[in-house]
TrEMBL record:
Name of the featured protein: Dephospho-CoA kinase
Tagged with keyword S-adenosyl-L-methionine: no
Entry-linked HAMAP family: Dephospho_CoA_kinase (MF_00376)
Gene name linked to the record: coaE
GO molecular function, one term: dephospho-CoA kinase activity
Lineage of the species this protein comes from: Bacteria, Pseudomonadati, Bacteroidota, Flavobacteriia, Flavobacteriales
This protein's record includes keyword Glycoprotein: no
GO annotations of cellular component type: cytoplasm
Function: Catalyzes the phosphorylation of the 3'-hydroxyl group of dephosphocoenzyme A to form coenzyme A.
Length: 206
């Protein structure tokens, strides 16, 4: 049997579309004692912390990208790039490398056998190629839409439009090593988390 504590960390990717509950699942993983890097959360922080990034975003989108207090104007930016694939691509080309560097710095000091990275664009950016395993958190569309409506105050049509622009769930399911179906309660999600961790541990204890 391998000494799993003497080996380098194995990176596990966690992803899911809007309203799937991937962040809730990631927090369940974290409660089991495993470190989790929250890409979406860090991106929101980095656009406010990194002055070089700020200047690049303002150069691309204009002064309105930040409010009078110098804070990233997320809603304004989202409306600005929504439906404009070229502009969104340019914005992502500024933000994604900065988040990638931040992740590498974080990952370099991790000691746990399994290290998790939560990101909405795991498959879209090909980040799963750098992962030992990938986990997709998914749910029925009507459940996802209701969650986002309750959480963000968006209309059914608005959420539906966002989902339509994301990679189809069928494609993600084909790419994922593990699929978590988050259609019911948090208790059920916790059970699935425990089972999945046991499967991953078993896969390296040879």
């Amino acid at each position: 049997m391998k000494d799993i504590h003497a080996l380098k960390p194995l990176l596990i990717g966690i992803t899911g579309g809007i309203g799937s509950g991937k962040t809730t699942f990631a927090k369940c993983i974290e409660k089991h004692g495993f470190p989790v890097y929250y890409s979406d959360t860090r991106a929101k922080e980095i656009v406010n912390e990194n002055n070089v990034l700020k200047r690049k975003i303002i150069q691309l989108l204009g002064e309105d990208a930040y409010d009078e207090n110098g804070c990233y104007h997320r809603k304004w930016v989202a409306e600005k790039v929504f439906g404009n694939a070229e502009l969104l691509s340019q914005l992502n080309s500024i933000i994604h490398p900065a988040v990638g560097l931040d992740f590498e710095e974080w990952f370099s000091v991790q000691k746990a056998r399994f290290v998790f990275k939560e990101t909405a664009l795991l498959f879209e950016l090909g980040l799963n190629k750098n992962c030992y395993k990938s986990i997709l958190v998914t749910a029925e569309d009507n459940i996802r839409i209701k969650r986002v409506m309750d959480r963000d105050g968006k209309t059914y049509r608005e959420v539906e439009a966002i989902i339509a622009k994301q990679m189809p769930e069928k494609e993600k399911i084909k790419k994922a090593d593990f699929v978590v179906y988050n259609n019911s309660s948090i208790e059920e999600l916790k059970k699935q988390t425990t089972v999945l961790i046991e499967k991953m541990v078993d896969s390296i204890l040879i």
